[in-house]
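Re: the 281-residue chain
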Amino acid sequence: MATALASVSEIERELASQRVEEEASARLRTSVMTHIAWVPEEWVEAAEDVLTGLAERHPSRTIVLFPQSGGSGLAGKVAVETFPTGENKQICTETIRIGLSGVAADHPASVVQPLLISDLPVFLRWRGTPPFGKSQFSELVDVVDRLIVDSTEWPELAASYAQLADFFDRVVVSDIAWARTSRWRQMLASLWPQIGDVKRIKVTGTAAQAHLLAGWLRSRLGRQVELEHEPADRLAGVELDGEPAPFPPGDAPPGADLLSDELERLSRDLVYEAAVRAVVT
């Protein structure tokens, strides 16, 4: 097992060494972004599953940050993966996994900034509820182009949405919970103008999906709509004033596909922002 790298300079040297090996093997390195992931211990398994599904579709430099309690400093490892693209060519992705503790965990931006690829967009995937008022979150937000969250992972939705809204003018935000409602929003929009008179929406799904669909409907109609929520681990049904809405076509995409789609977007989603604000007002 390779010895953990104890400084950013050691990580940079290891990256340079492995790039030399790539060139010697005539591999094609085609990073299109830097992808940062903040992964607390309880999210490690889920995050690794998603990263496995992303590597081939988004050649990138991925920096996975694992905050840890106790100790001080960092411990990093570098891995290079290659995927065939035809005609004896390959694409190459770089994954840097860094355990952070002490000051390094409180100020991770100082660790990742030297590792960013210049002139390429930077995405930050935050697992769990962001610590909106703390340095590690605020500092990372200031060095990225896009923040990707999944509010399904948040236990206190109203308070968290209110704090998230304060960042809309600071960083472009994507929410995977919102992406999971896409098929249903398209279907509900097709019910216009009848849906304009709806007074109550019942959502069978996660709490985040229920709040975001209700917030979306309120923001589109410009008035309050009562929400009834029936908990479920997926978005399984919507009722409007007691009448079941048609089930949208297609299947819900897996997590890797949802994150992959968000990694291709850079502009603000003003409809999402309005829905979040309507949840908390």
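The radius of gyration is 21 Å.
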